Amino acid sequence: MSEVSFLERMTRVMIMFEVSCILIYLVNEVPSAEGRVHNYTWEVSYQYKYLDCYKKLAIAINGITPGPAIYAVQGDTIIVNVVNNLVMENVAIHWHGIRQPGTYMYHSHYGMQRESGLYGIIRVFLPKGQPEPFPFPYHYDRHIILSDWYHRNPYERAANLSSIPFQWVGEPQSLLINGRGKYNCSLLGSTADSEVCNLKNPACFPAVLTVIPGKIYRYRIASLTSLSSFSFQIEGHSMTVVEADGTYVEPFVTQNLYIYSGETYSVLVKATQDPTRNYWATVNVVSRRPATPDGLAIFNYYPNHFHKFPPTKPPPGPLWNDAESRINQSLTIKALKGRVESPPKTTDRVIVLLNTQNTIDGYYRWSLNNVSHSLPATPYLIALKKSISDVFDQTPAPESYSPDYDIFSVAKNTNATSSTSIHRLVFNSTVDIILQNANTMTKNNSETHPWHLHGHDFWVLGYGSGKFNNETDVGKYNLDNPIMKNTVPLHSYGWTALRFRADNPGIWLFHCHIESHFFMGMMVLFESGSEMVSEPPQANMGCGATKRFIDNTTPA
Amino acid sequence: MSEVSFLERMTRVMIMFEVSCILIYLVNEVPSAEGRVHNYTWEVSYQYKYLDCYKKLAIAINGITPGPAIYAVQGDTIIVNVVNNLVMENVAIHWHGIRQPGTYMYHSHYGMQRESGLYGIIRVFLPKGQPEPFPFPYHYDRHIILSDWYHRNPYERAANLSSIPFQWVGEPQSLLINGRGKYNCSLLGSTADSEVCNLKNPACFPAVLTVIPGKIYRYRIASLTSLSSFSFQIEGHSMTVVEADGTYVEPFVTQNLYIYSGETYSVLVKATQDPTRNYWATVNVVSRRPATPDGLAIFNYYPNHFHKFPPTKPPPGPLWNDAESRINQSLTIKALKGRVESPPKTTDRVIVLLNTQNTIDGYYRWSLNNVSHSLPATPYLIALKKSISDVFDQTPAPESYSPDYDIFSVAKNTNATSSTSIHRLVFNSTVDIILQNANTMTKNNSETHPWHLHGHDFWVLGYGSGKFNNETDVGKYNLDNPIMKNTVPLHSYGWTALRFRADNPGIWLFHCHIESHFFMGMMVLFESGSEMVSEPPQANMGCGATKRFIDNTTPA
């Protein structure tokens, strides 16, 4: 675990400090004498791309977006040497979820840079000879990266979100499957340059998933959307879900997979339909009224030409507002018995986090228990290690909200406060988090929030509708086979209950994975055992109050 | 001088290192016991602006662009505490030219950030009771900042310039006077949103220069263009030029002032025309075929309403290709006798720099003596101080070019090489620079380049047409009253001869002030006396080969 901690700390540290040349160590949880060392060099640069036919600058790794996939066997060591060629921008890469064999991802965790395309998938395999505990074996292992795509650059979107009056970034222009989408160029008007948007550009031909008839495919699916919750499906083919966020699940069959930003899944698909034609693979927006066309890929049966469109219309997907179906799927996902650790039966502490949309001095923000988080100029870990008490609010962050709060209505007073306060947890203690959703500042509206925890997995003990009831809901917790995840949806007007062990020394973000919500303060920080973390290196000194720790034995 | 050096070093260092929180010391050359200390706090942030009616993100200081003017008396100390609120970008501010009382400017010197609007003027006054050595006194002291404005963001323009095939950034969309211009919104087509471009937006009403009839005004004029060379004039009013780049000039009267990117001038203007009307102040593009409408401001005679347009059409300005007129004005500008130091009569070294446009591996670049400069990952000063020889090319940069080179034709072989090599100068020696222009890669085309030297002023010994002739041109040098400047134009197909004393310890950029030319390698570096510079502070260690100097006495 400490290596994950080191990794995560490096990432945090780089967000604060590094400029033009970053060396990142990605260390798997279970170092093994037999593990191989993989060395990669990634050049990060701006590149014009036509992901959805519309010409737009993207941030690419070695020229491509999504970036190169990382393949590793459990126990391997990955060293990525990142060369930042962005000229004017820093880069920090977050190795999202990395703990054990399974499917993970990486993405930029710097400003709103993630949505410029700086992300990719991480596929961790079991050592040779160890079979995956799936209901049936698969022949091929493939991956699918889902994302949404804005035409405005992150600087504009950040300025919008921090404007008075508030300017919402709006719905994305396109949905992408493996970095391919299709924008309706005619929306640009007749004066638009065909160089800027051209539907015939081969660069934006839909992604192709080629299968050999009769074979079984494992698809590792990752959602890196900025905003959207998705339903993913493959026309005419059911999927057997076998893994989520890197841990095994009790296999279940579904026609469509709901996937939220920050989540990963593995599904098994049998290519046993009529092999003389191709099929559609689609994503469509759920939980928000869609204003973006569905994303399409071609599920191609070899030897049909992969450019041949299916003879059918793309399947419509579920209704965007069918909340029940989404909650049911959330409830369906259980850990595979014997392959996932069980949770402690009791907890040491319960933290309730009311999710609300608020105003602070005229700015729009998101808050937890009426506190919207702001990050201090001084990195927390250094402040904690060096006992600098004046760089963040030492009052503990609030752990509950008023029992009178009506989660079904717009608050009468939408004002919140901004704070740098954190939650300090006893090391190795067990902590429950009750995420409680509520109405936004818009009548009859409650948004879905995918919550992501750094540095730990958590058990998902339950989901429910309405207000969490401490008397009746705790008893219904699934303590038998709850799934372990690092990202979990909080459904509209509902609650989600999580349990985790604070066994990773450091200070860790827990945040909504919707990029604009995170930008607007929708995060908390959990500290535990930070005294066990080794001294921060000199190279990390320089910002905020850490200046005083710069070693100036050489005269300036 | 060492304080200027310190200042400049800080700026360079910040380009390489600093991230989110920068403290900049701007120290005037002549510290004085009586000098006051001015403390400023500048918050740098992205803001939507309508500088030319078109809605575009600009980088503002305390909400405004151009940024706040700095006013100081010779001997004062200015401390600027810069708070970087750009979220995803670093900031480095270059205090352009600062040496003595006069008119200077500051601007971003980081990537292509300058042209997002991060710049302003610096006005240094003589101590109270010391009159300016002008031909007649003035009543009021005002400033005018000239710039050009692109609608594409710097990320796009940087990607364009480094694309294969090369994509030129094109001419700017607007010319700005004190941050105001007027874009022809109808070019956006009928579908354009009036929120995006609206000529009636008061935010883009032309700048107003209000004068009281009969009074005399000193205008301090600075050009911060990205690309354009300008002619500036005030309809019906002549100007008496009295200062250039912070040093006094022999006063001369002109109808229009040619001003190149990076230059500053002071002119005196008498408000003695018909006071019942307003007049136009205009800038228009010279030396490139204009594709941008002239920039307009209102020269407003009080008490006429300042929104009242003049009854006349804006004056057309000189022909863009009247090179002779521009060279003549360059030749007219002489130092004011007795107020500007004279140059050494002889030189210790002559460096000839042939300015050419080239290709390197299919990329378009600008070169000096066929070498296009690339900056190493390790800061030069640290490499020099620590004797790290492998981080930049130790071969001296070339100081001449083949005598056979035909400056009037497109080169048969346009290939150049890229190098990190520098020019090393003997400390306190006298160095001549002959800037030699040539044809670009386009037939019958030679561009104007404004060259700017960091850390020093130079004497401008002469300008000439065609190829510099060492036998005949040296004898015509003006050693009597050459002006001292920090920025000087190199005219099309011509040469410019400069002399300076290498009396400022450090390593100094000398570069074309056209932002895209600089981006494409049009720079050299002069080192002298770097051994006299004190040790770089620990905070500057971290990039490239400097990592090894991080003091890790505290275990990582």
Automatic annotation (TrEMBL), chains A, B:
It comes from the Eukaryota. This is Uncharacterized protein. The lineage of its organism: Eukaryota, Viridiplantae, Streptophyta, Embryophyta, Tracheophyta.
